[in-house]
Design brief:
It is a single chain. The chain is of the alpha/beta class. The protein has two domains: 182 residues, inorganic pyrophosphatase (n-terminal core), CATH 3.90.1640; 112 residues, Roll (Diaminopimelate Epimerase, Chain A, domain 1), CATH 3.10.310.20. The protein has twelve helices and eleven strands. The strands form two sheets. Strands 3-2-1-4-5-6 form a six-stranded parallel beta sheet. A five-stranded mixed beta sheet has the order 7-8-9-10-11. Helix 3 packs antiparallel against helix 4. The longest helix is centred in the N-terminal third of the chain and has 16 residues. The radius of gyration is 19 Å and the shape is globular. The termini are far apart. It binds manganese (II) ion. The site of manganese (II) ion has 6 residues, from loops.
Length: 305
């Protein structure tokens, strides 16, 4: 079986795939983690910290048995995923549109991170993750919950991260989180074309497609200095793909605020849905850090009204 993360692999997608495949292996089942592309820099940092090898990249799974982690939408999978046998889903996003022809194992919880759910699957099966895997899972929870400061954070995440840190032998979670966030904030030498795609997901709303990426940074200074370059790239992407909107969320993980860059057929509609106003292809979202909880539901309401 292949345990497959979503497109544009982030920490959770990578770590949960590795951890879940590891659990299946402990239970005597054949399972291999896989990614749909190169992991982002923060995910690479966690691989480096844990010393684990990078999983293989799979962009085709037709005919395979798969277990998917950190998504439940067809458009987050491979183009041929409908031809795979989906055996299970672990996720913590809103329910997507994936359906199956056979029964499957679903672990979908409203918690801060898929790795939190996978850790609870270990507990369910009376298993303990290996040290390196525990470190990765802990890092994924730190990432997805913005070091437990994001609005998706639950007590279940906090307990999981604490126990995983103990297994991994990490005594200073705060120092680990700082190093991890520094790794993902190092964007000076990353081209604008790549930055706008980081953590990008395409959402369907009332027949329109909104492509929304997110950069989580310890300071917005460098990102804002690349604003014009990013807007040019976003305009090209928008024209090529025919999106309604192309948005890049620049999230300050220290101040817990977001500045959104936007190219759109109707930027005002998008900004208004989030109680903001567009000035020069940007709008401010004070107190907003979570796309899944503080952005998508409001856009969906505005588009599907
Ligand atoms: Mn996640």
């Amino acid at each position: 079986m292949i345990v497959l993360g979503h497109q544009n692999p982030d920490c959770d997608s990578l770590c949960s795939a590795i951890a879940l495949a590891g659990l299946f292996n402990k239970l005597g089942k054949d399972a291999t983690p896989a990614l749909q592309g190169e992991p982002n820099p923060e995910a690479l940092f966690l691989l480096e910290q844990s010393g684990l090898p990078q999983p293989e990249i799979r962009t085709s799974v037709a005919g395979e048995e798969i277990f998917i982690v950190d998504y439940s939408d067809w458009n987050q999978g491979t183009a041929d995923m409908k031809k795979a046998k989906i055996r299970g889903i672990v996720d913590h996003h809103k329910l997507g549109d994936i359906t199956t022809s056979e029964p499957l194992e679903c672990w979908i919880w409203p918690v801060g991170c898929s790795a939190t759910i996978v850790y609870n699957m270990y507990k369910f099966h009376n298993q303990t993750p290996d040290t390196a895997v525990a470190k990765m899972m802990m890092g994924a929870i730190i990432s997805d919950t913005v070091n437990f400061k994001g609005p998706t954070t639950t007590d279940i995440d906090k307990v999981a991260a604490k126990e995983l840190a103990a297994i991994a032998g990490v005594s200073d979670l705060e120092a680990f989180a700082t190093a991890q966030f520094d790794a993902k904030s190092d964007i000076k030498h990353i081209p604008a074309a790549e930055l706008i795609l980081r953590d990008q997901k395409v959402f369907e709303m009332a027949g329109e497609q909104l492509a929304i990426g997110q950069l989580e940074l310890t300071s917005l200074e460098t990102a804002l200095s690349k604003k014009d370059e990013m807007l040019v790239e976003m305009g090209q992407l928008q024209a090529n793909k025919g999106y309604h909107s192309t948005i890049v969320l620049l999230t300050d993980v220290n101040k817990l605020d977001t500045t959104a860059l936007i190219i759109s057929k109707d930027a005002e509609k998008v900004a208004k849905a989030l109680n903001s106003t567009v000035i020069d292809h940007a709008f401010e979202l004070p107190g907003v850090v979570s796309r899944k909880k503080q952005i998508i539901p409001f856009l969906q309401t505005a588009f599907e009204a």
